[in-house]
Amino acid sequence: MPELISIKSQQALTRTAQHRPGVPLRAAKEPKKGGDGGPGAGTALITRTRQQTRRPNMYRVLLLNDDYTTQEFVVIVLRKYFNKSVEEATRIMLHVHNHGVGECGVYTYEVAETKVTQVMDFARKHQHPLQCIMEKK
């Protein structure tokens, strides 16, 4: 179990660490009352770590064309689950119809996965074979 060091010792270590960032320090601690003074007694190792944050991976949500899902249904899906305007939803729907695939949006993994599931469930509920997938951008 790590031993506690006094406030004064902590302040001295902080000042020293500011002069040599990233360098592990060993500092003498105040002696423990009744301690045995065994090996390593009275020393502590302090290290500094920096947390690095990364941007999350992004995923494209795509609709795939089929011969049975109506164009109107695709527009409804785009408006309901991707908050597209009528004009934007119609443009994407026509792209899906003409090119076989269309991008609905780019999201983090969890959001993309949720949208794919919602679209697929909605399509099945209304007996449409519409396919919605996600791919890493």
Automatic annotation (TrEMBL):
Stretches assigned to the Adaptor protein ClpS core domain: 55-132
Pfam family for this entry, one: ClpS
Annotated spans, Disordered: 11-50
Record field: transmembrane: none
InterPro entries: ClpS (IPR022935), ClpS_core (IPR003769), Ribosomal_bL12_C/ClpS-like (IPR014719)
GO biological process: protein catabolic process; proteolysis
PANTHER family referenced in this protein's UniProt entry, alphabetically: ATP-DEPENDENT CLP PROTEASE ADAPTER PROTEIN CLPS (PTHR33473:SF19), ATP-DEPENDENT CLP PROTEASE ADAPTER PROTEIN CLPS1, CHLOROPLASTIC (PTHR33473)
HAMAP family: ClpS
Protein's recorded name: Adaptor protein ClpS core domain-containing protein
Record organism: freshwater sediment metagenome
